[in-house]
Specification:
73% of the residues lie in helices and 0% in strands. By secondary structure, the protein is mainly α. Helix 7 crosses helix 9. The radius of gyration is 21 Å and the shape is globular. The N and C termini lie far apart (47 Å). The relative contact order is 0.09.
């Protein structure tokens, strides 16, 4: 269907834009106005793009409802729907209890509906998983490369050419730590490990270089014990994934629970 192909193109474009926002356009430029709409404390742009994505995907969803063969039955469907109903109930409850308007209550919790992106994203993953994974990995590699370049420039000249959000700026001014993009890079590390486990293959040389580069950046420039421990834990799981056959089931169970 032509409409499905067009929908897929739009969903891919929106997914790439969301990735760009997630890495703050690789911190190569930015302004206070931009960070007021896109930062850890503000997700206005993300919510706007998610709303557009859901509206574009809606015709596909309506068609699937009347087509038993195409009907989606993802494990998280009812969990997401229940979460949204709870959010609506809390929205009205907060308005009543605290005597504030629904609009003001919504302003305090507008970012919760972002989870609805699960539905068009799940459809995109089902339609073209390779594109989703390769794009995510490409953004992660580029983000780390830019951060490592900043690390090198900072070490040699003490200059900062990246633009951070207010939190990142404050952390750098107070302690010289670079906190940008770490959550995204750790998630990428986890996804790479999980993808390799599902394919039952070893990481590529590029992925190994990514792991080593991330460890270097976290240890010497982010200087966050928690993030570094998370990275080591992910790599530990990756190694165990590829050698767990040699362990008994109780040992594997203890490891996974830990």
């Amino acid at each position: 269907m032509l409409s499905v192909k067009i929908n897929l193109v739009f969903q891919k474009a929106l997914y790439l834009i969301l990735l760009l926002l997630q890495v703050n356009f690789f911190n190569l430029f930015g302004s206070q106005n931009f960070y007021q709409m896109n930062s850890d404390n503000s997700k206005v742009l993300v919510l706007l793009l998610v709303s557009i994505s859901v509206l574009i995907w809606a015709p596909i969803a309506i068609t699937d409802l009347f087509n038993a063969k195409e009907r989606s039955n993802h494990s998280f469907n009812w969990l997401i729907i229940s979460f949204l109903f709870c959010w609506i109930a809390v929205l009205f409850g907060s308005s009543s209890v605290y005597q504030i308007s629904l609009r003001k209550a919504f302003n305090f919790s507008y970012y919760y509906p972002i989870v609805v992106y699960f539905f068009p994203f799940a459809w995109l993953v089902k339609s073209d998983f390779s594109f989703v994974l390769k794009s995510f990995k490409f953004f992660a590699y580029l983000e780390l490369l830019i951060l490592l370049t900043q690390d090198l420039v900072l070490s040699l000249s003490g200059k900062l050419f990246l633009s951070f959000d207010p939190f990142g700026q404050q952390m750098f001014m107070d302690s010289g730590r670079i906190m940008a993009g770490n959550d995204f890079l750790l998630l990428a590390c986890f996804i790479i490990v999980l993808a390799r486990k599902l394919k039952h293959t070893l990481p590529s040389y590029l992925e190994v270089l990514f792991f080593l580069g991330l460890v270097f950046h976290l240890f010497f420039f982010t200087k966050s014990r928690m993030l570094f421990l998370l990275m080591i834990a992910i790599l530990g799981v990756a190694i165990f994934f590829n050698s767990s056959k040699g362990f008994t089931k109780p040992v594997r169970l203890i490891f996974y629970v830990s």
